């Protein structure tokens, strides 16, 4: 029997004494070591503050960033987009309810952040000449900057945190989970928490506190029933929302939920963002595109949900029409950068993107500022309404902020918070006692209902009563259930520190659930499409409700609301005209009278507390109302014990472990970690930021597993001379070490100095035995500008297709049109397609003569599309017009694209005929090409003919083109 077990059950740990706490001190405390938190820590340290970074998992792997980052969703890259356009589009996507001063910070600082991340070593997709490959994914704005190798972002950040200068200023404590922010005199002064492995009590004294704990991802229950099978990283349980609330900070937009499209039965996004540039898109079961909305929004989700529920459902991500090259490239991204389990999931069903489109569904509800707008209220420097308390990342309300916004606001928070020095007063004893009770209470009742059961019950209520479509009646029932669940939570049992962590999380989820229900009840209109669709208030009411809905804890401990008019915009948006003005204090929101078999004349039990105001028809107490029961407020609070009557906990399909990043993910360097004592030595050494001489013996070790681990350590720590050492390792006798060195060089491409000494080993590797290493060598030589035309021409004769494709990209980077013409005759279609694309960048129409006659449909299509950038003069325009009659739709689509650059005669007439093509992608290409000619009346007339096209993209792009 393992140690610590009695009679087959684990003995409950002892409750540590309140005064046995380990007390830590710092200028700036950062809670949560994900995207925003790591950046906040780095910036605060750079500004001279002593920083303590507390993470309940392990910073190396934790948070939303640890997996699935395949692109920056919202980069305003100069030359590709304008900050003001971005601000206007986010304002529209958020139905007018934004504080533009915050969104503008992301718009204006996002690009510098991209460059800072790049200097750290994060790789963004670039074209052959080094320009950012920004993509237009939605119909409005070009903001998506792909990161096909985004799986390494967290690794890169961790490397920064462990740089010697940073380690002197930033103390990282993994597995410590704060549960409450401590306040004194109305300002933040620290936090209280515990160690999730040892269970010891921890208190922190801090000058300022930055909350960066991510979304509330475990709010709704996924359709699969798995507690941790959420869209969001499941360790993000709304901790920061609850901590901010209890510290007295205002939260805002909590009724604007996060709901996302995702793969049916699998907790991953379908990734239309990734698939779109490859030609994938969402369709209904008839194969029709159906999304009308021009940007990611609740409106888009409403259309999505309606389509799923309609006769036209289910909905699919369509990939089966794509050529093999695109499918395999997508598989590489989706099954590595996105989620490794994804390939296993599809394979388990016997599905393949070549044969089955991917069935999609909608996610459970959550709270998230980054994908939606539900968060802690912050100003344009991440300051909350509590002095010295900051919030950044997904838990802060800066709508549609995503990853780059989390970095920007982490940076802003770190810079501002660095002005504070460690708090020297007494920590508030009553708050410490309450936090201690909150953490350790389940140990007093080890045989009580376990966390999975209570959490399952709570989140089932969220699905039943809070998920849209919402109604006053269902939301009122929700409020009653959540109030009753205080009793279930009080009875919950735990024995281990890990279980204590999960129990504390259930408390956060309950708080978030009540906030979500009450906020939804308070906003008596519908807005943000599906996010806040109320069946009893179906209209959007800009007169009463072009307001933020702020929520805070009142002095008596209840949730109270204020409607705050949207401030006049910095960037005007035609559809909305906010005028600002005084906030409307709404007070507490009371549940409606429901769940009776008829009209009830007297208020339900609990609302009759002395001083409780009458419940208005809107369910919101009138100005200044302050009645109701204590605790969670509302009608149901005064009914302790009621939970027992409906204690359905007991069936817990949610108890299983979920897929995705979770607390407790182990560490380890490469395969073989732990198999040799030398590797353990190496791992210990890695913690101390070794220099290259210290690593050399391991790079030369006789055991290839040790050499491989040494390559991984080099990649993680990047001491001076790393490039040279990795390039040398490309000639290692062991193929796995060579492959690891190649992968590492690719990973570090943005941070390796282009030292001339690198050229010789890289050039030698171009002739090495493994294709994967040869292709890495060509790529690195191109990116570091260390190669030349002769070297790349050699690579064009390589037997491996992947190396020749890299050679084509390299030849584009040196403007070698002659050699690209040679590549256009390659035996491989993939190389010929790449050559046609390349000639579109550096060639002339005449250079495309061969690919335009190619026997392969996709090569001809690529060559035609390339004419759109080289220009499409006679006789190429005539060839394009003729190609509109080709039997292959890909060729017809390419031909329509070519006519973008042709003279209006004959382009417009030919494109008009393309608008009646049987294939939606040809019609779409026709509409996009006609946009280039939209100054002409005949082009506009042609565009008007597709107003009723069955394809949503065709309709919408035509509408946008004629709007000008
Ligand atoms: C599946 C998915 C895919 C995405 N893809 C993209 C994309 O491709 N492009 C893009 O721009 N954006 C994307 N996003 C959004 C982006 O990842 C987030 O907006 C961003 O990472 C949020 O950063 P954050 O710091 O707020 O949260 P996180 O990075 O999740 O960090 C929160 C951290 O806080 C820790 N924590 C939580 N509670 C506590 C506590 N009580 N004590 C201590 N630590 C705690 C967590 O363990 C975690 O490490 C995606 C999000 C998801 C979920």
Biggest β-sheet description? 7 strands, mixed
In the CATH scheme, the class of the domain at 434-651 would be Mainly Alpha
User: For this structure, what is the CATH homologous superfamily of the domain at 434-651?
Assistant: Fumarate reductase/succinate dehydrogenase flavoprotein-like, C-terminal domain
Helix content: 40-55%
DSSP, total strands: 20
Q: DSSP strand (E) fraction?
A: 5-15%
Mean pLDDT: 89
Secondary structural class: alpha+beta
Pfam families: FAD_binding_2, HEAT_2, Succ_DH_flav_C
GO molecular function: electron transfer activity; flavin adenine dinucleotide binding; succinate dehydrogenase activity
GO cellular component, one term: plasma membrane
InterPro entries: ARM-like, ARM-type_fold, FAD-dep_OxRdtase_2_FAD-bd, FAD/NAD-bd_sf, Fum_R/Succ_DH_flav-like_C_sf, Fum_Rdtase/Succ_DH_flav-like_C, PBS_lyase_HEAT, SdhA/FrdA/AprA
Write the layout of secondary structure elements.
Elements: E1 5-6, E2 9-10, E3 22-31, H1 35-46, E4 51-55, E5 71-72, H2 83-93, H3 100-120, E6 145-146, H4 153-161, H5 164-167, E7 170-174, E8 176-184, E9 187-195, E10 201-211, H6 239-246, E11 251-252, E12 261-263, H7 272-275, E13 281-284, H8 298-309, E14 315-318, H9 324-338, H10 340-348, E15 358-362, E16 375-376, E17 389-391, H11 402-417, H12 429-440, H13 451-466, H14 472-491, H15 497-522, H16 542-545, E18 547-553, E19 559-565, E20 584-588, H17 677-686, H18 692-699, H19 704-717, H20 722-729, H21 735-747, H22 759-765, H23 771-783, H24 789-795, H25 801-813, H26 817-823, H27 829-842, H28 849-852, H29 857-870, H30 876-883, H31 889-898, H32 904-914, H33 920-931, H34 937-944, H35 952-963
Parallel strand pairs: 3-4, 3-10, 4-7, 10-17
Antiparallel strand pairs: 1-2, 5-6, 8-9, 9-10, 11-16, 11-18, 12-15, 13-14, 14-15, 18-19, 19-20
Helix pairs in contact: 1-4, 1-11, 2-3, 3-11, 6-15, 9-10, 13-14, 13-15, 14-15, 17-19, 18-19, 19-21, 20-21, 21-23, 22-23, 23-25, 24-25, 25-27, 26-27, 27-29, 29-31, 30-31, 31-33, 32-33, 32-34, 33-35
The structure holds flavin-adenine dinucleotide.
Residues 31-37, 54-57, 62-65, 68-73, 177-178, 212-214, 231-233, 235-236, 239, 269, 370, 393-395, 402-404, 406 line the site of flavin-adenine dinucleotide (FAD).
